[in-house]
Specification:
Helix content is about 30%, strand content about 20%. Helix 2 links the parallel strand 1 and strand 2. It has four domains: about 160 residues, Methyltransferase, Cobalt-precorrin-4 Transmethylase, Domain 2; about 55 residues, no CATH class; about 190 residues, Heat Shock Protein 90 (2-Layer Sandwich); about 70 residues, Arc Repressor Mutant, subunit A, CATH 1.10.10.10. Helix 8 packs antiparallel against helix 9 and helix 9 runs antiparallel to helix 12. It is built from 15 helices and 22 strands. About 0% of the residues have low confidence. The longest helix is centred in the middle third of the chain and has 16 residues. The strands form seven sheets. It has a six-stranded mixed beta sheet, covered by helices on one side. The protein has about 500 residues and is α+β, with helices and mostly antiparallel strands.
């Protein structure tokens, strides 16, 4: 068996946060059992963690080259580890996987957040039989350290008993076969997991078990929610309105409004929604610098800010609330709405100052998958990235809003001043409009999407919808290529220059 991650990336902290990784140069039972207990308690709902035995730490990073473990000791360490895990109450066994990295043997322990928390273990682990017994204590993670919980933390941990995040709960209304092998294999291939090699040749249940996507007794195994969110083509069947809706309102009266709904596995709908926004919503202005070949470029909204804000909405939304994530675009702002709001550890003052450091995560497994796919960044880095990208674009600062009941969370990205109607900028400083430069293949895909959505359109109507003032030579050539290939056809083929001519999708 292998782990559903790339171990080289894990060692070097490329996708998993440092706080969720513990390096151990050798087998040392006491601190390792304490850390297993702490990761299983998952005090901040971060998704547990990993212990790398045979990897020495140096200033918070792996010491290179790796020292590794004595190959002859691997089996003994695993046997002793399993025996020592019996000291944890309730019993907690990590996923144990040996790996050979750069010719060195290491052991990787994967400890997901436990279903049966709180867990406790002896303060002292005696290696000799007949030794005195040690009192048991609760352990938690604080940053990259494993600590014994104090009285307040212990009470809070006990209050979290059986409080399993929704994305990590068993779904009794679905079957394991509702997860699709091709989607599982595609994910494992994308993240570079060794599990991919035999994913399509093994039983679905076995692969899903290795990925910690199924639970329950052997006679009644069921998928957990996150497995259906990422590895079923229609998660909205199980989680109503698990979708993203993008509404473009160029006029407050609703004239010219368009709406696109994105469904499917969470990562796909997020990528599709971002691609649509990038291709159809985001525009660029170019300000020429007098007496210079240089130009200052600005977007109505920087893509990175939109990407981070929408990704955070997917990550932090409650899928128990049957409402979509909504992106609303108006001439002066973009609003991204998700439900519910942030937990109360984020105060109104934090929101006002744009300092959003979440203490506890709502969806621990969704975050794991999105990070492995490199769609979202590490812990609490989303808002700083939004702020920096808006600043670098010359845009105004975003705002973050919620209500007293924390029933919603609204991210507001103001449009760049260049794009405001009636801008008061001096005439000689106003930028010249320049459409985002698109490839022929992008134009081809966008034209096909427009025709599928709106039906027959003239070439000029297509150009307008794509943000051009008039039909460009490149777009005209792309339409002609599509006609020649049979992808689209003229409504009046015998009158190609007719003023009533329309482009139609599909075969004639």
């Amino acid at each position: 068996m292998a782990l559903p991650i790339n171990v080289i990336d894990l060692i070097h902290q490329r996708k998993v946060e440092r706080t969720r990784i513990e390096y151990k140069a050798d087998w040392n039972p006491e601190p390792i059992i304490h850390t297993i207990t702490a990761f299983a308690n998952d005090f901040d709902n971060m998704g547990g963690g990993y212990i790398l035995i045979g990897v020495e730490e140096l200033n918070g990073r792996p010491k290179l080259p790796l020292e590794g473990l004595d190959p002859d000791s691997i089996d003994d360490i695993q046997m002793d580890l399993l025996n020592k895990c019996n000291f944890i109450e309730p019993r907690c066994i990590p996923v144990i996987e040996p790996y050979t990295v750069d010719g060195k043997e290491i052991l990787v322990l994967w400890i997901p957040g436990g279903e049966d928390r709180p867990y406790k273990c002896p303060e002292k682990i005696y290696t000799k039989k007949g030794g005195e017994k040690s009192p048991k204590a609760y352990y938690i993670r604080k940053g990259a350290r494993t600590l014994k919980a104090n009285a307040r933390e212990e009470r809070e941990l006990i209050s979290m008993a059986r409080d399993v995040p929704f994305d990590d709960r068993i779904n009794y209304h679905a079957d394991i076969t509702d997860m699709k092998p091709a989607l599982l294999a595609d994910y494992l291939h994308t993240v570079g997991s060794d599990l991919y090699e035999n994913a399509l040749n093994r039983a679905l249940e076995d692969v899903a078990t290795d990925m910690q996507l199924v639970r329950g007794p052997s006679e009644y195994r069921k998928p957990i929610n996150v497995g259906l969110m990422f590895f079923n083509e229609h998660p909205e069947q199980y989680f109503s309105f698990a979708q993203i809706e993008v509404v473009d309102k160029p006029d407050p009266t609703g004239i010219g409004m368009t709406e696109k709904i994105f469904t499917g596995p969470l990562d796909r709908q997020l990528r599709d929604a971002l691609a649509y926004i990038r291709n159809y919503i985001l525009k660029e202005y170019v300000t020429k610098v007098p007496d210079s070949e240089l130009a200052i470029r600005a977007f109505n909204w920087p893509y990175q800010a939109v990407e981070e804000a929408l990704s955070n909405a997917v990550y932090h939304k409650s899928y128990q609330i049957h409402e979509p994530i909504t992106v609303t675009i108006t001439p002066d702002k973009m609003e991204i709405l998700s439900l519910p709001g942030p937990d109360r550890s984020i105060t109104d003052e934090h929101l006002e100052n744009r300092v959003l450091v979440s203490r506890r995560y709502r969806n621990r497994r969704i975050g794991d998958f999105l990070k492995e796919l490199e769609i979202v960044e590490g812990r609490n880095t989303g808002v700083p990235l939004i702020l920096s990208s808006m600043k670098n674009n010359g845009s105004g600062l975003p705002s973050f809003e919620t209500d007293e009941d924390r029933s919603y969370f609204l991210t507001v990205l103001p449009v760049h001043p260049y794009f405001l109607q009636g801008s008061t900028m001096p005439e000689n400083e106003k930028p010249e409009k320049s459409s985002v430069r698109r490839t022929r293949e992008e134009l081809r895909m966008m034209t096909a999407d427009l025709l599928k959505e709106h039906g027959n359109m003239s070439a000029n109507e297509i150009a307008t919808a794509l943000g051009y003032k008039k039909l460009t030579n490149t777009l005209r050539a792309v339409v002609n290529e599509m006609i020649e290939s049979g992808e689209v056809f003229y409504l009046y083929p015998d009158k190609p220059k007719s003023r009533n001519q329309k482009i139609c999708i599909g075969k004639q």
